[in-house]
Amino acid sequence: MYNDWFTIGPVTVHGYGVMIAIGILAAFWLAEKLARNHGLDEERIDSMIFFVIIFGYACSKVLYCITVFDQFLADPLSVLGSGGWVVYGGVLGGIFGAWLWCRKYGWDFMKHLNTLIPCVALAQGFGRIGCFFAGCCYGIESNVLGVSFPVNSLCPVGHPVIPTQLIMSAGDFIIFALLYRNVEKGKHPENTGAMYLILYSVGRFMIEFIRGDINRGFVGVLSTSQFIALFVFLTGIYLLLRGKNKSEMNQSTQV
Is the pTM of this model over 0.70? Predict the structure, then answer.
């Protein structure tokens, strides 16, 4: 809600940036722990995560440019230099970046995806708190559940809005807890990547109904994020069924 925390000389520390940094550091820490526990290349996992983050952020900006394409054509620098990002672009771009990395170094992509995907949900949880500080990604007006943001927030001021940022953050942390438990103690850790795609896409599809920042692009009656969520959900279902079929085949072979 209050994004400008303090200023030292010409430098202002923003809550949004701090929470993004915490999310990234938490993802690095967790990735190292999971790599160590599950037999991944712990020494090079940091390099992979760094590459995935950079690739994901680049894809996030690209997708944002697509959603505001008219504005991008009129003034590219204003769009490229803005704080506009599309989370789905970052998530899907990051997964694609992980696939590129694994392909280059001959790593098992699905094993890395299923093992490390909790890091994504953890980072998102902290990142959404940053959104709350900045006032972006706000919800619709509500006099019952609404929060009033101060002047200079990215959220329109003067009326209370639902703090969808905190709802999304809570959802991300819940997804993280479920994924982490499945990786460490679940009966089917090979389904963790599919679980993330399914859970996140369902949550994102639903939260879009109470988002107030509607100028983010539409595909028919669906927001851009809802449209993408449909395909992400179906991909998750496909991976889940694919993993189930492989497990059944392995069991029949053993018998």
Answer: yes
